[in-house]
Amino acid sequence: MLRKLALFTVAVLVTIQSVAAYNVVVPAQERKCFFEHLEKGDNLHISFQVGEGGNLDIDFWITDPNQVFVEDATKAPAATYNYEAKMSGKHEYCFSNAFSTVTEKTVGFNSLVLKPYKEDTTRKADPLENEIRELAAAIQEVRNEQEYTLARERTHRNTAESTNSRVVWWSLFQSGILFVICVFQITYLKRFFEVKRVV
Q: Where along the sequence do coiled-coil regions lie (predicted)?
């Protein structure tokens, strides 16, 4: 049992270099950029979702060390990208809110770097190791889905709270209008039925 646990821990540490989950606010007409140092063959997995602001959309791109666009999206509310590095160096990914003039956007995103597995040919492959590696990848996918679901829940909650607030204010406005109309009608009817005496 201890051997299995040790193998699992080693497999996870060897397979996954870094995992990061962030929430970032991108002001209007600005962009926020991040970078990863990748070796050739590394796999960069990025998933994001706009949680708050405007139409819940943002521009996104990934560039290689030569500043060449390798992935991009325009006005996307959410997306997932898997990119295998063709060269070693600093790969940059950016969220841009340049098209928005007033509204800032809140973006939640995950960044995951997977190192390619290099099999040791000097020893026999252990089937347990392969199973552990597959399990680690499946666990990471589940984590990504959970974070995506949390971001969606936050978006829906904000929408529901905004709608509720508007309904409350609209109800108060209608009540105020109804009160004013009632006062006006009572005053007008009182005046209509007043008896005017001529002395």
A: 118-148
- What pTM was computed for the model? 0.58
**The CATH number of the domain where 32 resides is what?**
2.60.120.680
Give the domain extent around 46.
2-154
pLDDT tens digits for range 94-132? 999 988 888 888 888 888 787 776 666 666 667 787 788
List, edge to edge, every strand of the sheet that includes 89-96: 31-38, 89-96, 58-63, 69-76
Six token digits for residue 145:
């889905």
- At residue 10, the pLDDT reads 46
Number of domains in the chain: 1
